Write a sequence for this structure.
């Protein structure tokens, strides 16, 4: 795929210059800064040959997230192309609150809203603490350990699996499918297989829970489905699919990115170690500074819309870069500096408008518990000598390949 970096041409016609994948493998912040400063509404050549538009300024991204003229479009991928899937698999992945507009969105979101209130989520603190403690127990040797593989990834998958009633022995296989699904173009050829496998698994899970309901969200959704006409079978499967994916890699990236930002400077680590009460603010700043979602949000323009001085024609895919918006100097003082005590500044890490992340209270709680457990149980933790962060080559997500630490 190719992307117009917009550095040379100011015309509306995209020019083919640079491999898309290369763009996401380079220094993504400086690449995105180039767009934000020189071409804030930039045309991109999408893999299917159509033109997409990349927004990188805070004001534009915020406005677009809540713009009713920019709608969801089923299973359109963030880069504007669709994987080839059998129709029944397509139907079972494309119908959830994240992929539809009102009134379906309102109906599907309402079904789950009660399970994700701040109070309900706060009640999960002991369960999440037990999961974090168990993972730290497993890190008993001085290391080196990879905190991504051994802590940041297993924690959210365990939490969401317990919420959905997924048995422990099944988690490994769908962790693998999930990582293919969120990887973006680098593993695009594996995508249909991973989605088919994941949907097959969820259908089996639904069948099991239908026979033997438990005290879990999957069983609650089945009761809604079977007790009325509030959601279809495809919507049920698709909602479980969304919950499994939406809360996994994103939260792992938040935990990994925040742990790295704190460990990277001993004074920061010591500040939260001696006073874990500072963690929530540091987590908000990590959400801004290294946002877990980089280009994951996208919309379809149903009419011509003007952003900046650019008309985006009806029918275009619009890609919104939260990562770029968070480094916009028009919105934040010294946007490139990680300041854990930064005065609360609104960020877009969880989106904005009607699709604002349903799981935000859960993600915040998981990050707080994970980091509190880490600083209290492993106060001597440090990065291995010479550690340099490598970002995963994903168009969708922004997270570290690994985070090598030792407590020796
Ligand atoms: C939506 C980010 C964790 C469930 C979103 C959106 C963003 C986001 C940016 C909006 C997408 C758009 O407008 O197109 C994040 C981040 C997380 C996180 C950064 C972790 C740090 C979670 C968790 C769950 C979850 C833990 C649940 C288990 C959802 C759902 C939606 C959503 C269901 C769709 C809401 C709707 O369309 O009404 N998330 N998320 N997320 N997220 Fe999260």
């Amino acid at each position: 795929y190719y992307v117009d970096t917009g550095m040379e041409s100011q015309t509306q016609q995209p020019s083919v210059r640079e491999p898309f994948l290369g763009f996401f493998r380079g220094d993504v912040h400086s690449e995105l800064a180039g767009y934000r400063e020189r071409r804030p509404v930039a045309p991109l050549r999408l893999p299917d040959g159509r033109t997409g538009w990349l927004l990188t300024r805070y004001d534009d991204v915020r406005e677009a997230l809540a713009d009713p003229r920019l709608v969801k479009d089923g299973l359109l991928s963030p880069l504007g192309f669709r994987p080839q899937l059998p129709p029944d698999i397509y139907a079972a992945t494309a119908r959830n609150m994240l992929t539809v507009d009102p009134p379906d969105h309102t109906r599907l979101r309402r079904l789950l809203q009660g399970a994700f209130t701040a109070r309900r989520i706060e009640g999960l603190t002991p369960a999440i603490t037990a999961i974090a403690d168990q993972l730290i127990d497993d890190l008993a040797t001085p290391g080196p350990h990879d905190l991504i593989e051994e802590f940041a990834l297993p924690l959210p998958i365990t939490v969401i699996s317990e919420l959905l009633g997924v048995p422990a022995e099944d988690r490994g296989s769908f962790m693998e499918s999930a990582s293919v699904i969120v990887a973006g173009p680098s593993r695009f050829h594996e995508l249909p297989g991973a989605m088919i496998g994941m949907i097959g698994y969820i259908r089996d899970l639904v069948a099991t829970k239908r026979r033997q309901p438990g005290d879990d969200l999957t069983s609650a959704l089945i009761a809604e489905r079977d007790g009325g006409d509030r959601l279809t079978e495809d919507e049920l499967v698709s909602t479980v699919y969304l919950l499994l994916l939406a809360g996994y890699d994103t939260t792992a990236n938040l935990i990994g990115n925040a742990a790295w930002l704190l460990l990277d400077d001993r004074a920061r680590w010591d500040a939260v170690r001696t006073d874990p009460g500072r963690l929530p603010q540091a987590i908000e700043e990590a959400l801004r500074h290294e946002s877990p979602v980089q280009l994951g949000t996208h919309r379809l323009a149903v009419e011509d819309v003007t952003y900046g001085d650019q008309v985006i024609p009806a029918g275009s895919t619009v890609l919104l870069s939260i990562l770029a918006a968070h480094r916009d100097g028009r919105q934040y003082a010294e946007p490139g500096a990680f300041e854990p005590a930064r005065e609360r500044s609104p960020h877009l890490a969880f989106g904005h408008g009607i699709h604002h992340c349903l799981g935000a209270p859960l993600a915040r709680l998981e990050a707080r518990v994970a980091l509190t457990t880490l600083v209290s149980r492993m106060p001597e933790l440090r990065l291995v000598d010479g550690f340099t962060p490598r970002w995963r080559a994903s168009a969708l997500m922004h997270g570290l390949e690994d985070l090598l630490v030792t407590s020796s």
Summary: The first helix runs from residue 20 to 25. DSSP finds 18 helices and twelve strands in the chain. Residues 274 and 375 are 9 Å apart (CA to CA).
